[in-house]
Every structure is written in C-alpha cells, then in structure tokens.
Amino acid sequence: MTEGQFLHYDGPVTVDGIKYPTARLREHREQSGLRSWDGAAWIAASRTPEGYKPSLSGNEPIPVELPDGRHGNALVTNVGFDGAYFKLELTGTGPAPGHTGDAQ
Length: 104
What we know:
- The chain has one domain (5-93): Thrombin, subunit H (Beta Barrel), CATH 2.40.10.
- The protein contains no helices and 6 strands.
- It has strands at 5-15, 18-29, 35-44, 62-65, 71-81, 85-93.
C-alpha cells in the first residue's frame, strides 16, 4: 500500500447489476482529507449477459458492490474492448466500496 491510499481491492465486483469477475479498486485521500477512488472492472466477451452494451454513465453515478455487500457509486469514465475483454474504467468520490476506516 502506498502512502495516501487506503483501499487496495482486487477481486470480483458488481457494477450496475452486472457481475465482473475481475476488478481493481484504489482509494486515495488528499492532504485536505478529500477522498476519491478509481479503478477498472473486466469481463470476458464470452461471459457477458445477453444484450450487454457497456456505456459511459454520463453525469449519473452507478452502483458498485463488493461480494460482501459493501457498496459505493461511481462514474464510468471509459469503456474499452480488446477483442476478448470489456474494460470499464471507474471513478468515484467519497470512501470506496471496501473502505474499512482511516488506519493504513
């Protein structure tokens, strides 16, 4: 863990109701005390639900939930597809879904 970061989460995540088997989330805190977090979630094209069409969330935050029920909201800032995997890039404000307190 690097200084200024609280959460390092690597594992499955549900984004806007869709389960992504792989995600990386990182929470940051500025010296001013403001928190933000970012990360990405991946899903193989072969595992996407019927009708899956990822898109940018615009100005509306979408729910992000960890398997243990902790949750937060994020904006989808980028969507990528490399021919095999879809990747959502996420940015949230406030504590990240897995935030467990102020201790490092």
